[in-house]
């Protein structure tokens, strides 16, 4: 069987399967070279990257053209340009040839090439190189497999800890309690390290001196914070404990008693690329394509085309910037004892020197500790490390898509179903004045309420778009040793009340931008931070991470109503008799939410409610708490509703 016949046979079984295994791909082309007089060894690496990114149908098309007399390299070049436009022309440049890279970048930004089609395909404008630099300075780096092992230790330690229960109490000897609890957390963490790897863990507790293992504790706590930022749904309880522990450990008086530091800044994509002398990738025109989230669409051809573009962009970036020889060297030296590497990295310099001089340090197949440190300090970036950076930026784009989408859909529903200037009918009125059953604390007419809801949704979208930057600023405020806090009763228990000047300034900038975008501002623009309403920056971040959880169930319910009605004649009759049809049902849900989810209610007193920045979110949460009383609640259940907090 010839190679072409073999591929066609595979195509009949799975036409969209890709050659993920390079050995299979090379075997197929070696088989083809027997009949086609083409030696696979002569395939350039860049061309092989193209082949890996293509589907079998596309590869068969290439083979047919080559067997028909076309040049193999020219065919691949045409396909690459078809997907990536003139940006692919930069593939012939070296990383050091910055002039050619700048030229390719200018061509990319000019819009006079096929890249415009790619921008259109992804439905959103791409980041500029300056925006990518700013973004990379805030996006945390993904944790790798070895760091994930340490993450499990931290999560286990924080799960069993009762740090805040024992520390956040009124006591004259609170400093001693804090120090004892921090030491207890470190002791449990050390114990779990022993159970994870006895030989290495026992060295961690050898002298029972936490100060000698300062870098180890800094590393594991930083890994946990980095993981949480990229995965907000995880560590729902333990992250708060960790932040409060680090908040206390940053105090000068506590540091003197502890004799070591627990905090170090989160490792970002920018800092990692800078340490590897690879910042040029941030200005590469292929990076926006490689990091763009590919939205699921019904058309398989469009989806496969977008995925192919993304795979091609990633492989070309790896070819341009990663050091292949160094990557292969690291692969040969890698061992299964990744925990050891992180453990030794966490030892203080003094302890490391002592162990080396006494010849008591552990030596693995990679050599001594000295050679390990050289590996950590190298200026070459491997394929795996560069992939980690690309996927970290992609993770952020995925976060934006899934968190901004419900807000965009609600804005679409508002502008589609409602007239901004007048009521289309009594059933579509957003007025809070004429509703005798309303408990609203605002008295907006239809037009004023429409613009109030629109600007609130726009503000939420802008906050979530900047969430990763706001999160970084929030941690800077929380973990500033010179920014003290006090314990206070906010009406919802004892909280740490602390100012957040960096976060407050950023929020003022966001509100100003939204005000310029929406025009006349309805309601108050007061931002509560560091008071009994929003005690600290951690509460602020947690509150705005709830916005997608509030809106997503509503959007999903409305999107599934048509399918629900068509699924059963009995359900269709029920919807017709109870709500007047599918369209009327959607309108009733939206009217109720846009009115009573933004009515200024939900607080325990008049001063904490209203139209302030925080009060808008409080009203929405209040609406969610009464969902069971709504006449359309059975429809929510039938469309898969399980709660506004999602699944734990």
UniProtKB/TrEMBL annotation:
Identify the InterPro entries for this entry: E2_Ub-conjug_enz, E2_Ub-conjug_enz_C
- The record lists the membrane-crossing segments as none
Where is the secretion signal located? none
Q: Which domain of life is it from?
A: Eukaryota
Give the Non-canonical E2 ubiquitin-conjugating enzyme C-terminal domain ranges.
Answer: 136-329, 363-646
Q: What is this protein called?
A: Non-canonical E2 ubiquitin-conjugating enzyme C-terminal domain-containing protein
Q: Which organism is it from?
A: Cryptosporidium meleagridis
The top of its lineage is: Eukaryota, Sar, Alveolata, Apicomplexa, Conoidasida
